[in-house]
């Protein structure tokens, strides 16, 4: 089940966006602050220029300062932003020589100006102001009294400049983000290109092409490509196994069919009713053998096909054994044997299994026993509990199997060295496959004093 | 006895016809779902042999239709599909028995006989096998027409065996019939079985033991 969980592109984009936004916010704050600083510096120097211009216009008449405010100074003060301006020239006593507004100059400011030029912010007339004050000595004149010059303006110009500078910074930043984003998109396309190539390679493959990959991939995709290669190798193996199995199977089917063909052909050439009868008996046996073989091949194919274990459930092995045995004991093929059930343990024994497969398993065990033992043989099935395992056994008092053959008895088409019966050698192979699906162990051992005992050890389900 | 065979393979249909006619039956055969469905709507049969994979429909649908109409004619399903699911589904839909292809004709004949016998018993309340007959309303058993004087437990045993005639009667079921649900010795039942065996000697009937499973009342092979 493939569930699409977003795209790699969107994941990369989200991370990129988060990073860019966080860094961008910091950058913008910094840009705003530095725009503000730049605007302050620019306008502060204008205030200074205005103050100096006024200072040059200060005259002394009879020891008192007189000032005619030059138009240039006012022009410097008044920026193009409809600002209100302020100037004041104070004498040494703090008396106003000239001023355009009744702006209160605080005493501590005046003291500071004694020492050095002052820049300060203040509120007046319902607006924020920036003020600059400096002191001039009347050097070269008869008095030595300094004058203080105060100039100031409202903040509109500064704010406007700050915004202007800030806007430029923002524009530069956005253009950069845009360009970086486009480059990232390009980079992603280039970086994800090997993936696209891998996809194309997979798409172009023929359904039965199981060869390993022949592709250049970056380190990150190596694991994926190797996993795919392993998968292909498994597929190749199972396809080869299937081909081998099909070849074996058709060989096995062809043998009895060839027998049928030649027998019927000979009978058709003959004119003896006795010959016909003999041939018919052979044809009948051959047909029976072939159809049994076909159904066994079908079970094996089904076992190999159904792999997900979706039909597994908790079941009472004793009940299943009883039910299957009832079915088999009543069949025609079992009438010449003594087929029976050993007494079952008192408590039900539950295992985790697939009913159809277990019936198939039991059917093959019983069928084998009936087929490979002489009429009148005693065949007994039963269950024994060993700790957290349950042993399902079937034992007979037939001729048994040579010890050297026991180990390979569960290989397909192995008939325990017997050619005298109509078996196909598939029975125990099917049993073995089913046992493995159920995590059960298969054990084939001689039964004392004679015969065979086939045991399957199933883990008990809690 | 009228038998209906719904089977599309001509070879199988012919051999079914040949095998079943000597049992004293008239056998009618259809190869298509539509024909069979029409015939079943107008005619009554004693037994239907139904193939599941028909060229123009599924035999299970036909069975479903039949049972929906309340028709209880016994149905024996014949099919090449031997998956257990199909089997369960067929029996759920009301099939009486199930035989997977390929089957031996002897097996088929035995099943047909058992089904016909069961359908007969349903109508006249009499259980019979070979020379043995049991009237379940009066509780009287007869062998070759002569009444058998049997103790109560042997009557119950005989009835139990006859109810399953032709197939294995589980041992537990017979024990419950004879002794109730209490604990009984393991060979208590065997005692009654051997008594009944003695009575049946020479009648052409025998009781076969299936170790650990149960008993079957059957006709001795000639």
Overall morphology of chain A: rod-shaped
Instruction: Describe the strand arrangement of the main beta sheet of chain B, using strand numbers.
Output: 2-1-3-6-7
Distance N to C terminus of chain B: 25 Å
Gross morphology of chain B is elongated
Taking pLDDT < 50 over at least 5 consecutive residues as the criterion, the unreliable ranges of chain A are none
Rg of chain A, Å, rounded: 53 Å
Helix content of chain A: 40-55%
CATH C-level label of the largest domain in chain A: Alpha Beta
SS element count, helices of chain B:
8
The portion of residues forming beta strands of chain B comes to 25-35%
The largest sheet of chain B is: 5 strands, parallel
How many strand units of chain A? Answer: 14
With strands numbered from the N-terminus, the spatial order across the biggest sheet of chain A is 4-3-7-6-5
GO molecular function, one term (chain A): phosphorelay sensor kinase activity
Transmembrane segments (chain A): 12-33, 173-192
Keywords (chain A): Kinase, Membrane, Phosphoprotein, Transferase, Transmembrane, Transmembrane helix
Enzyme class (chain A): transferase
């Amino acid at each position: 089940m493939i569930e699409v969980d977003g795209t790699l592109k969107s994941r990369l984009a989200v991370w990129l966006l988060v990073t860019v936004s966080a860094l961008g916010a910091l950058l913008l704050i910094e840009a705003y602050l530095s725009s503000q600083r730049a605007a302050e510096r620019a306008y502060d120097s204008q205030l200074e220029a205005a103050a100096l211009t006024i200072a040059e216009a200060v005259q002394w008449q009879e020891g008192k300062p007189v000032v005619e405010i030059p138009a240039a100074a006012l022009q410097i003060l008044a920026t193009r932003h409809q600002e209100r301006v302020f100037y004041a020239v104070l004498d040494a006593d703090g008396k106003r020589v000239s001023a355009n507004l009744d702006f209160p100059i605080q005493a501590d400011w005046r003291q500071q100006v004694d020492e050095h030029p002052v820049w300060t912010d203040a509120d007046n007339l319902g607006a924020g102001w920036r003020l600059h004050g400096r002191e001039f000595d009347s050097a070269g004149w008869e008095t030595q009294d300094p004058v203080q010059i105060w100039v100031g303006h409202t903040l509109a110009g500064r704010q406007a400049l700050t915004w202007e500078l800030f806007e430029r910074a923002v524009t530069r930043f956005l253009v950069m983000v845009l360009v970086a984003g486009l480059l990232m998109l390009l980079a992603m396309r280039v970086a994800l290109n090997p993936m696209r190539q891998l996809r194309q390679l997979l798409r172009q493959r023929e359904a039965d092409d199981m060869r390993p990959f022949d592709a250049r991939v970056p380190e990150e995709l190596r694991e994926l490509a190797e996993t795919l290669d392993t998968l292909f190798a498994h597929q190749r193996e199972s396809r080869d196994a299937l081909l081998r199995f099909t070849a074996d199977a058709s060989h096995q089917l062809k043998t009895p069919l060839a027998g049928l063909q030649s027998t019927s052909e000979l009978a058709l050439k003959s004119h003896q009713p006795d010959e016909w009868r003999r041939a018919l008996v052979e044809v009948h046996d051959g047909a029976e053998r072939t159809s049994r073989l076909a159904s066994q091949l079908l079970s094996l194919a089904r076992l190999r096909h159904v792999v997900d274990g979706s039909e597994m459930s908790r079941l009472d092995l004793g009940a299943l054994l009883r039910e299957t045995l009832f079915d088999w004991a009543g069949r025609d093929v079992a009438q010449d044997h003594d087929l029976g059930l050993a007494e079952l343990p008192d408590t039900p024994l539950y295992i985790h299994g697939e009913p159809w497969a277990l019936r198939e398993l039991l059917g093959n065990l019983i069928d084998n026993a009936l087929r490979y033992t002489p009429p009148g043989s005693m065949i007994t099935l039963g269950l024994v509990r060993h700790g957290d395992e349950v042993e399902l056994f079937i034992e007979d008092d037939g001729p048994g199997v040579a010890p050297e053959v026991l180990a390979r008895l569960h290989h397909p088409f192995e008939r325990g060295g017997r050619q005298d019966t109509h078996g196909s050698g598939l029975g125990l192979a099917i049993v073995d496959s089913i046992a493995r699906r159920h995590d059960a162990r298969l054990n084939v051992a001689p039964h004392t004093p004679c015969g065979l005992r086939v045991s399957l050890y199933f883990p008990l389900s809690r | 006895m009228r038998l209906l065979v719904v089977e599309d393979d001509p070879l199988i249909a012919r051999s079914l016809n040949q095998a079943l006619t000597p049992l004293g039956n008239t056998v009618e055969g259809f190869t298509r779902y539509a024909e069979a469905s029409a015939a079943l709507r107008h005619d009554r049969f004693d037994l239907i042999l139904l193939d599941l994979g028909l060229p123009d429909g599924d035999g299970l649908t036909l069975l479903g239709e039949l049972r929906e109409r309340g028709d209880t004619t016994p149905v024996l399903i014949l099919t090449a599909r031997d998956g257990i699911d199909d089997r369960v589904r067929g029996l759920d839909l009301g099939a009486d028995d199930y035989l997977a292809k390929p089957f031996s004709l002897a097996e088929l004949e035995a099943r047909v006989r058992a089904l016909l016998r069961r359908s007969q018993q349903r109508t006249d309340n009499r259980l019979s096998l070979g020379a043995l007959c049991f009237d379940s309303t009066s509780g009287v058993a007869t062998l070759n027409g002569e009444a058998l004087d049997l103790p109560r437990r042997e009557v119950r045993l005989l009835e139990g065996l006859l109810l399953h005639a032709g197939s294995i009667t589980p041992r537990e079921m017979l024990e419950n019939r004879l002794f109730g649900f209490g604990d009984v010795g393991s060979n208590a039942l065997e005692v009654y079985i051997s008594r009944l065996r003695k009575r049946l000697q020479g009648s052409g009937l025998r009781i076969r033991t299936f170790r650990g499973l149960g008993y079957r009342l059957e006709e001795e092979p000639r």
